[in-house]
Design a protein that fits this description.
The complex is a heterodimer. Chain A is mainly beta. Chain A has one helix at about 35-45, and strands spanning about 5, 10-15, 20, 50-60, 65-70, 75-85. Chain A contains 1 helix and 6 strands, in the order βββαβββ. The longest helix of chain A is centred in the middle third of the chain and has 9 residues, at about 35-45. The longest helix of chain B is centred in the middle third of the chain and has 16 residues, at about 470-485. In chain B, strands 8, 9, 11, 12, 13, 14 and 27 form a 7-stranded mixed β-sheet that branches. A 6-stranded mixed β-sheet of chain B has the order 40-41-42-39-33-43. Classes of the chains: A mainly beta, B alpha+beta. The interface of A and B includes residues 18, 28, 39, 60 and 66 of A.
Chain lengths: ~90, ~1000
């Protein structure tokens, strides 16, 4: 079980958090302009990387804030956490 | 006839407190400090069980948690009985009753022993190969196989014991209190670190605590004296906590470990009352030191499993720590010097050694010479080729090994004995290290896997790190500790160590016999009866991965997880397949290291504490009025209120009729309520609901449907505009938390520019919903000064009001199709409100109704319940709710998905009404719907989602989803049931009051 450093609250047990899937997938501003395939790309396609992955997490049983995390999925090492809207750090 | 094999009680055994216990219904005596195993051995009892598959007699093999054979049932027939307990770990107490497992009628005469004679017919994979055909017979086979397999018996009564969980945060966790762990814990604590030291045994000091032979010394003291002094000092340290009888079960990432602390199992039963039996420790440590020691390896030779065959190190522990001589005529069999340490102990204690068989051709260490000087016969370069004695070993046969160790040569020599101690060298206990994600490397010279790459702040010390000699431990550990703790010195930097240890070893995984291989029984996994033959068979049959060989032969899959035999299995696979062991790798070590009881895992979360449940403010009233409850998420909701022995059907019929004929009242407090404020609140609702919100007037309510981005219905509910920038949203009971989470997600991540704030107020308000033609009169009685005329307070509108001076919000909305009001009042007034409504409604026979009646009433109106009539595969169009999907809005969550090629298909499952030809026939919810029951394979068109008998319509009604159902109005379909086919007609899903006249009645 990880110890996650919430950018708002600091270090907390993983059980307080909820994982929210791949990060930096922006909802299209004009969905109606998209073809079925383009919309499906946004809707369904997610990467499942072995290695460095950018993820969304929510401090569900804490401040309820969403934030982003860079995690190495091969050994669960958390490389960085940063607030929504902030530029992803390169790791 | 029980003979006493106690030598002279050791200092660890309290000779003054004799304890009686029963084993297989016979009374024996032991002393305080004994384990069940040591006490039985003191009574010369070796035969304790039968093996799993062949039912071969088995005895105690080890003196620790790695024991594969001596697993017993404790206190059989009582609520506290426990199966598969290692006799080597059970501390005896007054009143203990233990019995053998896997034997019938008794361990001495076991019918299943015939399997031993049939063993040529029972190779690896026997059950897979034999019982797979014909497939339909499996159920019959299974009954007999289950009966003949299985070890102990599960308890049948509820567990009366108390368990708990405890969180521990520490700077340093030290696992294992042998010499390495003691040195590590003391260094950590003395450097100001909050330290926790745990050990699975009741005595600290590992095997150093009884290491008092004259050949070894630390600072000119015997190791046992030196370490006892260290432990005494350790126990005085303030920032060090010691937990004995505590076994670390699991080592997860980020130094999170689970351990089981045993608190009462060693106490007499009468002293356990009201005490916590076991505690699950959830430990988060900044640094972890693993000093879990090493496990002695058996040797794999023909018939190496008879009672009386033990590990040499176990013999030493029994003699030196428990004062028990396991045999009167002992033979030792070894490939390294460890057995000679046992021999030295035996010589010192006057225990007779018949011979030592050493597979090394020329062992010549100081220790070996010392033993030779004591006139002990050593057969060098020999191996045991067979043993005999059914229930106790009585003879070993030995022969000389060929140079390459693959064959035996020369004449067979027979040596009578009653006990054989074997030593195949040591295996580092790396289980926890690998659980943490650590990677091992293989050390060729002594054929061991040792820790190599660590994934967290941890270090392995001592023999679990491959340092098997006291000499190397004393010399290496100070440096390792200094580096790990970043300190300049330790108090152990200049210890003086005298030792004769020699680490030479001749490793032969499978020892040859004079018999042909097929006729031998060299056991690798004792508990699961897997022999070297089974492993070779698996390789012959094409299995290559060690994980596959493990599963096929069941090697390492017993309750002991193959702690003793796994390395031999790997070695035999490597030798047979001609690959290097280092390349082969190991099987995965999974938690728990030793079995955990369910009680420990569950802790306090039993009975009513299994999960939290939520009660509405009116809950007590429902209880007093004999409501039956149903679980909705974590809520307890009133289900129906039976009167005069009514069953559910009768109660629901009465309640539904009353609600439509006069007045009903429902506790709707569980509905999710989200307070939405901010200048962009209307825009926000526009984006999350399918319909338009900007034009909703203040004081008006609107029903909304929320989709997922994939276009499927996610939640629904009524939202009220309280003010220009203030709304209150209701959600389904079960969806409340998820809806709030989803809305927050969009607000924080997609639309941070919106000025909107969300607050859950579900628990802040109690809600009573009063419905029926007389609801208006009842509300008027409660709030006389509120104008309830349709002009002032029409359907789908809201009023602030006061009841007895308490502010409340009243919505005129309806989920039943009746004229109805939802009264929301601060939660603490909920029960008073309810009672007030009941009092005011008395003259109108106001009838409380539960969720079942609510479901029936709304089904009559064709209103959906999200999660009952929908299952995340239905769009609003599928639900025939096109009216609620705005065509004008540019975007809302899920809009684009409503015209994907898949969602516009005409043959999607769609919600329809279903009427049975026989109006008294009530369909089963979940029943399949077909068009042609004779077609094979039968084609399923959909299923029934809601079904009731309606007392208001005097017929049964049902909702269901049917492929292409929208176009099937009036068409006949079939519900095939087990005994009959039910004919139904597809109908409109609205069954009652299509014109909505009742809303304004």
């Amino acid at each position: 079980m990880f110890v996650i450093s919430c950018p708002y609250c600091g270090e907390r047990e993983q059980s307080e958090f909820k994982a929210g899937g791949e990060a930096h997938i922006e909802r299209p501003k004009q969905p109606t302009e998209l073809s079925d395939d383009e919309w499906a790309e946004y809707l369904f396609m997610r990467k499942n990387i072995k290695g460095i992955q950018y993820e969304r997490w929510n401090h569900a049983h804490g401040c309820r804030k969403w934030f982003n995390m860079v995690r190495d999925t091969s050994n669960d090492e958390i490389k960085a956490v940063y607030k929504m809207g902030e530029k992803p750090p390169s790791v | 006839m029980s003979t006493n094999s106690r030598l002279k009680t050791s200092k660890f055994i309290d000779e003054t407190s004799r304890i009686s216990f029963k084993f297989n219904n016979k009374t024996y005596y032991g002393f305080k400090g004994d384990t069940l195993a040591s006490a039985l051995l003191a009574n010369d009892v070796h035969l304790v069980g039968r093996s799993f598959k062949y039912h071969r007699p088995r005895g105690i093999m080890t003196a620790g948690s790695e024991e594969p054979n001596a697993i017993v049932q404790i206190n059989d027939g009582t609520a506290v009985t426990e199966p598969n307990v290692r006799a080597t770990e059970v501390e005896i107490y007054e009143g203990l009753e233990a019995s053998s497992q896997n034997c019938w009628p008794s361990v001495n005469f076991d019918i299943g022993g015939i399997n031993n004679l049939l063993s040529p017919l029972l190779p690896a994979g026997f059950y897979y190969k034999t019982f797979m055909w014909p497939a339909s017979f499996w159920e019959k086979y299974e009954y007999f196989i289950r009966k003949s397999a299985g070890l102990g018996k599960s308890p049948t009564q509820p567990d009366p014991d108390i368990y708990e969980h405890q969180y521990i945060h520490c700077d340093v966790l030290v696992i294992g209190a042998g010499i390495s762990g003691i040195m590590a814990a003391k260094t950590a604590a003395k450097n100001g670190l909050k330290t926790l030291l745990v050990d699975e045994k009741p005595i600290l000091g590992g095997n150093t605590i009884y290491k008092d032979n004259e050949d070894t010394s630390i600072n000119n003291q015997t190791p046992s004296k030196w370490i006892s002094d260290q432990i005494n000092e350790l126990e005085k340290l303030d920032n060090l906590e010691i937990k004995k009888r505590t076994s670390v079960a699991a080592y997860h990432g980020y130094n999170y470990l689970l351990a089981r602390e045993n608190l009462t199992d060693h106490l007499p039963i009468h002293e356990r009352k009201n005490k916590i039996r076991q505690r699950l420790l959830k430990i988060r440590a900044k640094k972890v030191i693993t000093s879990t020691g090493a496990l002695e390896r058996p040797l794999v030779f023909n018939n190496n499993d008879r009672p009386g065959i033990l590990l040499a190190s176990a013999l030493k522990r029994y003699s030196d720590l428990f004062g028990v001589a396991c045999g009167k005529k002992n033979v030792l069999f070894t490939n390294n010097d460890s057995a000679y340490e046992t021999a030295l102990s035996f010589i010192n204690k006057g225990i007779k050694i018949e011979a030592i068989i050493d597979i090394r051709e020329n062992p010549n260490s100081k220790l070996v010479k010392k033993i030779e000087e004591n006139q002990i016969k050593i057969f060098k370069g020999y191996t045991v080729v067979d043993t005999s004695g059914y229930k106790r070993i009585n003879k070993v046969s030995i022969m000389q090994l060929s140079k390459d160790g693959q064959k035996v040569v020369g004449n067979k020599i027979e040596i009578p004995c009653d006990c054989l101690g074997m030593s195949g060298g040591w295996t580092p206990a790396v289980h926890l290290f690998t659980q943490s994600g650590g990677k091992l490397s293989f050390r060729e010279e002594d054929q061991v896997f040792i820790p190599k790459i660590y994934t967290s702040k941890q270090i392995s010390l001592g023999s679990c790190n491959g340092d098997f000699s006291l000499d190397s431990i004393i010399k290496n550990i100070p440096g390792q500790l200094k580096q790990f703790f970043e300190i300049n010195s330790t108090e152990f930097d200049n210890l003086d160590i005298e030792s004769n240890e020699d680490l030479s070893k001749r490793n032969i995984w499978l020892l040859p016999s004079d018999k042909i291989f097929g006729k031998t029984k060299p056991f690798v996994d004792y508990q699961n009866d897997a022999t070297a033959k089974d492993i070779k068979l698996a390789l012959r049959e094409g299995f290559r991965s060690i994980e596959h060989v493990k599963r096929y032969t069941t090697t390492g899959m017993g309750t002991d997880q193959g702690k003793l035999g796994n390395m031999h299995a790997l070695g035999i696979i490597a030798d047979t397949a001609g690959v290097k062991m280092g390349e082969l790798g190991t099987t995965t070590f999974r938690p728990p290291y030793t079995p955990l009881t369910f009680g420990t895992i569950v802790g306090r979360n039993v009975g009513e504490y299994f999960d939290i449940f939520r009660k509405t403010p009116m809950h007590d009233w429902h209880e007093q009025n004999k409501a039956e409850f149903e679980n909705v998420g974590q809520w307890k909701r009133a289900w129906y209120y039976p009167k005069n022995n009514e069953n559910m059907h009768q109660a629901v019929q009465r309640e539904s009729k009353a609600a439509r004929d006069s007045a009903g009242i429902l506790d709707a407090s569980t509905l999710g309520k989200i307070d939405i404020q901010g200048t962009d609140a209307s825009e926000f609702l526009n984006r999350v609901y399918t319909n338009a919100w900007s034009k909703l007037a203040i004081g008006k309510c609107r029903y909304g449907l929320m989709l997922n981005e994939d276009g499927m219905v996610y939640d629904d509910g009524v939202t009220t505009r309280l003010d220009e920038n203030h709304y209150i949203m209701t959600t389904t009971t079960g969806g409340a938390a998820n809806v709030l989470g989803k809305l927050e997600d969009y607000l924080q991540t997609e639309w941070p520019e919106l000025d909107v704030y969300l607050t859950s107020v579900t628990d802040h308000y109690a809600t009573a919903s009063v419905c029926g033609p007389n609801s208006k009169k009842i509300l008027q009685k409660i709030i006389p000064d509120l104008d309830l005329s349709d002009d002032n307070f029409p359907h789908m509108s809201f009023k602030n009001a006061k009841i007895d001076g308490v502010k409340c919000r009243i919505m005129r909305i309806s989920f039943t199709g009746e004229h109805s009001y939802e009264i929301n009042i601060p939660a603490s007034y909920g029960k008073s409100l309810w009672e007030k409504c009941m009092e005011a409604g008395k003259e109108y026979n106001i009838t409380p109704y539960g969720t079942e009646t609510m479901h029936l009433l709304r089904a009559e109106k064709g209103f959906i319940i999200v999660g009952q009539d929908t299952d995340a595969t239905l769009t609003p169009i599928d639900l025939q709710m096109d009216w609620i999907v705005s065509k004008k809005k540019y975007d809302f969550i899920g809009k684009r998905s409503l015209y994907r090629s898949d969602t516009i298909k005409e043959d999607r499952k769609q919600l329809v009404g279903l009427l049975t030809d026989d109006p008294n026939e009530v369909l089963e919810e979940g029943a399949q719907i077909v068009a042609d029951a004779n077609k094979k394979p039968i084609e399923m068109l959909g299923h029934v989602t809601s079904s009731y008998y309606s007392p208001n319509l005097n017929k049964s009604i049902a909702l269901g989803v049917v492929r292409g159902g929208k176009k099937m109005l009036g068409q006949k379909l079939i519900i095939p049931m087990e005994n009959k086919n039910i004919n139904v007609t597809v109908s409109d899903p609205v069954f009652l009051d299509k014109e909505n006249k009742r809303l304004n009645a």
